[in-house]
Amino acid sequence: MHRLSTATLAATISILSNVTAQDTAVIGLNSLTEIEFSQLSQRDPNPLGEKALAIHPDQWKHAETEHFIYHFVHDYVATPVSVEAEFHYRVVAKEIERDEPPGDIKSHIYIFENPQEWHEFQALGKLEPWTGGIHSEGSLFIQRDPSYKFSGNTLGHEIVHLVMHRFYTAGIPRWLDEGFAQYISKDAHASYQRARGYISKPHSESIPPQDFMPLSTLTAFTYPPSDRVHAFYNESERLVRFLAETDKPNFLKLLDALGRHQPFENALAEFYPTRFSTISALEEKFRDYASKDFGSSLQQASN
Q1: Average per-residue pLDDT for the chain
Q2: Which residues pair with 108 in a beta bridge?
Q3: Which one, of 62, 66, 34, 268, lies nearest residue 166 by Cα?
Q4: How many Å apart are CA 86 and CA 274, to the nearest integer?
Q5: Out of 1-15, 148-162, 163-177, 253-267, which region has the weakest mean confidence (pLDDT)?
Q6: How many CB atoms lie within 10 A of CB 159?
């Protein structure tokens, strides 16, 4: 069974001890400290950020943590986001075994509370009307209605995108980006919830045979058709999990190679030569793994 690597799990336990303490008092002493916009350490070069702050500009407040800058309306909404953001940053950095990226660039997170203002932003940014959040050029724009209790790994998924953008600024393939975000956020969210006293286990959905996409198709998508989005996310997560569980050190090398835009089949042959040197060989073994229903736990990928 594999959720997070041993080194990551140890780090996660340490992180969670701090997260739990913060989370119990998010409206009290540990809430974000508001600072003036002019005093922020960095500006966001993303033009969508300017569009966001132009919507009722007098309402926006601002704060910073070690790796992120927040733009929000109420600190009791933003503080839990900040706790989860810093938690996921550390989990991702440990999981990919990377030091801090060069420079001290922080990612900006814009938190809308009012659904009407979110719709206004969607129109200004020419976003799809169904989007509940968007990661764009290293910035995150989300809606967090304070009257609604959020659960699940959605925020963690988007934070993983932010963090991966900082380590791989040139981008990584869509299947890898979405699959890795699902893989990390599902496991991390379960750990996060357990540290807060909930019974929680990660769940990786099996792929019904009729929904299985050939890997040549899956890995070629820049974005899947609207009727295949759910299947694309699930199969991408399963593929990332399979590759990482099969050989974690070489998965990280594969990740770096794809971050340099090396073709997937070439990188696969270089880093998994004795296991599946071609996409066809990988698909043969992966198809069986993907179709098994593991429930809330996962068996180790077979060699």
Answers
A1: 81
A2: 69, 139
A3: 66
A4: 38
A5: 1-15
A6: 31
Instruction: List the structure tokens of 147.
Output: 């009257």
Give phi and psi for 153, each to the nearest 5: -105, 15
> Under 8 Å CB-to-CB from 143, ≥6 apart: which residues?
111, 112, 113, 115, 118, 132, 133
User: Taking a C-beta distance cutoff of 8 angstroms, is the pair 98, 84 a contact?
Assistant: no
Q: How far apart are CA 276 and CA 195, in angstroms?
A: 38
pLDDT reading at 154 higher than 90: no
Owning domain of residue 24: 6-167
Cα–Cα distances (Å) from 257 to 188, 252, 261, 270, in that order, read 25, 9, 7, 10
The gap from C-alpha 255 to its chain's centroid, in whole angstroms, comes to 15
Sheet harboring 139-143: ordered strands across?
61-64, 68-72, 107-112, 139-143, 133-136
Same domain assignment for residues 133 and 245: no
The whole-angstrom separation of Cα 208 and Cα 19 is 37
Question: Could you read off the pLDDT of 244-300 as tens digits, one per residue?
Answer: 999 999 999 999 999 999 999 999 999 999 999 899 999 999 999 998 864 433 333
The residue assigned the tokens 């060069």 is: 102
Domain CATH code at residue 73: 3.40.30.160
Count the helices and strands in the chain (H runs, E runs).
Answer: 11, 5
In a domain, 302, yes or no: no
